[in-house]
């Protein structure tokens, strides 16, 4: 199959890449590509990274324009919904004219993210940031608060809202859990800690140190009686069948499973085993203890796109070449003798500028799953600007304000709001990021929300009407959560749009493009495809996939493999290394 080359002359300021000879060509600058580029450049390979747009980050991680929140409502054309890599589904707010003028006049003060993320402190991705040296270019802030909402009906009164306690001291101080619930929670967590594969009596932070080996063996025997395929909830119900109150126990069990053991990962299609869940719970607590923070999550000071910039900088410092407004239009194998020097080339790559680049070792390109229609990967997100933090202000209780960065996780179960629109279950994630992060004007907060709309059957998202229906459901979910966590602001609002406008000065719903499903790696030994699983904020699986991509490039080079271990934070550098 021949790809037509669309020739486009480089601008006068750009240097031509025609005739350039490199070791590896990488197409795009999304997170996997820049990590590969930084790693290979650090190994001494000559790397050329091509980015089709004018900013690093690609279509799945790049920053959004502040104008997204203030759409041109006077325009009657359909093009008003097109904002670069995203499609704006609906604009709202605009009730503060002076704020709109201030925001648009100082657009550089906003770094609205296409894919906002919080990060576990104990995570393979954080280890990669440290091992690679990219962390030296970054500054992280802790996430102050973690809230959990379990929506069991359409009414706000029936929704359970908990300020999640992440430490023993926080559990003792909790205003949301009763004394019996606190005792049950501590018993659950202690049992899980003891059974964790990482638990050891020599770890001063581990509660496993205060039990005998006989007690540990007995606990493991009792939990294993139901089989290793049993889920965590099944094991908890078996182990704590004598709980004094069924309602209290259900709340504690759901909290342990949904938050401590699963964190913010999407619920799996098949329930995970109790051993897997316990290891996730252990990582959650280790993330809290790593920096002795109030929650296990960290927030990048200037947004997730700064992480891509950090890896791009590492690549450049190590001698890599970064070229903007470039993309691969075609690539083909060439003769062994062909190339700019005596080393020859394995491939010749042609760019959208008509340049021919000789590549000696390999080409890395993103791939999209052609078997899944793009509309079947519908992902709607929400971004809003507010002058006050989202807060819990229930009468007679301490006004617990999320004064900085906060994370809200809402589970909509059977009979909840989401069930009315063909969802078997759904999770709404809400990120609140204050101006301390440097992504919005002082005194304001940027709030993001996202829901997994991929649960809908494909035929339900294949047309505009279904997209509108999904937006209606999504807006209702966001409004439902706002009524729970900001009741005073929403008290007089009679519909979902009024709720949003009462809380946010400006907001927009936007449809984000689907990320690549994997990457193709072409080398002289052949080609391979590596899948890269994207999740809302879980990042630990991405380093594993990137390592697979790099192993195809470095082959059997043991020196390179050892250096990759250091880069990914797996092992300390060898003695005598710089």
TrEMBL record:
Transmembrane segments: none
Parts forming coiled coils: none
Pfam families: GDI
GO molecular function, one term: GDP-dissociation inhibitor activity
Stored InterPro entries: FAD/NAD-bd_sf, GDP_dissociation_inhibitor
Gene3D superfamilies named in the record: FAD/NAD(P)-binding domain, Guanine Nucleotide Dissociation Inhibitor, domain 1, Guanine Nucleotide Dissociation Inhibitor, domain 2
Top-level lineage group: Eukaryota
GO cellular component, one term: nucleus
Entries under SUPFAM superfamilies matching the protein: FAD/NAD(P)-binding domain
Any Gene Ontology biological process: vesicle-mediated transport
The family this protein is said to belong to: Belongs to the Rab GDI family.
Protein name per Swiss-Prot or TrEMBL: Probable GDP dissociation inhibitor
Gene source species: Cyanidioschyzon merolae (strain NIES-3377 / 10D) (Unicellular red alga)
